[in-house]
């Protein structure tokens, strides 16, 4: 069942979304060569608590940390660690989800560390563009598959692939709700969009043609590309408004 949020719930979603976006704005200056992903995790946990919120990933299905940090060929669900030190040329997706007053805000960005090669820069920039193509396709009365169609149409010309194993999701007073949002075109997403729906769009784009991914048998979480190629991701939580998507995970001054 896909829930329609009422105005009170929407107000709470706006506040949670804004806090999640602020969190990424705040840690951005620290996402630099030489820092560990555990340090970023601890900054996020501290910020989240300071604002009276809860880090949703911590203990979610047994996930051991407060945020996900996914470097280079890690597609998603990377676990922060003191052993993972950012180095020049890396890209890292930082995915944060906060619970504020019972409601969730979920957003991620891919940051570039120092001198990133042109090919990888293009992947990152185009993945962000793909997210916005998906967001622009949201209109009440249209089908959800327009989101995947718009992303696929844009991404297909670059020779990249769109990860299929993971998608966006409904979100509200639960982390993951219906619907499952695909980032490619599929009849599975022949679902009518209605005002008051809230869901994430979070395309994961791999540099090479294979969309296959592998989950680590060691930690049970870390998802990497099957072919070892680089992967980028951006995520927003959106509300279906009367005219189209309202991005909830945004601040007045955030560039993303
Ligand atoms: N934030 C992720 C998403 O976009 C989910 C992370 S679940 C975790 O849906 F358990 F890995 F934290
Ligand atoms: Co999400
Ligand atoms: Co997320």
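-> sequence recovered:
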């Amino acid at each position: 069942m896909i829930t329609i949020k009422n105005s009170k719930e929407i107000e709470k979603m706006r506040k949670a979304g804004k806090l999640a976006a602020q969190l990424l704005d705040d840690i951005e200056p620290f996402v630099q060569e030489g820092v560990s992903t555990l340090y970023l995790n601890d900054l996020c946990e501290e910020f989240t608590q300071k604002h009276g919120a809860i880090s949703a990933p911590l203990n979610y299905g047994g996930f051991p940390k407060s945020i996900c940090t996914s470097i280079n060929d890690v597609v998603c669900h990377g676990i922060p660690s003191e052993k993972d030190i950012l180095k020049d040329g890396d890209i890292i997706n930082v995915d944060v989800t906060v619970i504020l007053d019972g409601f969730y805000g979920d957003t991620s960005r891919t940051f570039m560390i120092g001198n990133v090669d042109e090919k990888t820069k293009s992947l990152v920039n185009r993945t962000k563009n793909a997210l916005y193509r998906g967001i622009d396709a949201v209109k009440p009365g249209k089908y959800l598959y327009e989101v995947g169609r718009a992303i696929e149409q844009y991404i297909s010309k670059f020779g990249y692939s769109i990860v299929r194993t993971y998608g966006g999701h409904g979100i509200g007073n639960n982390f993951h709700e219906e619907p499952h949002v695909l980032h490619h075109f599929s009849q599975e997403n022949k679902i009518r969009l209605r005002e008051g729906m809230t869901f994430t769009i979070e395309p994961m784009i791999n540099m090479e043609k294979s969309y296959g991914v592998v989950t680590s048998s060691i930690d049970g979480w870390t998802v990497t590309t099957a072919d070892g190629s680089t992967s980028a991701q951006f995520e927003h939580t959106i509300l279906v408004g009367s005219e189209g998507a309202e991005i909830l995970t945004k601040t007045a001054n955030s560039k993303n």
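The pocket of cobalt (II) ion (ligand 3) is lined by residues 95, 97, 106, 108, 202, 235 (CB under 6 Å).
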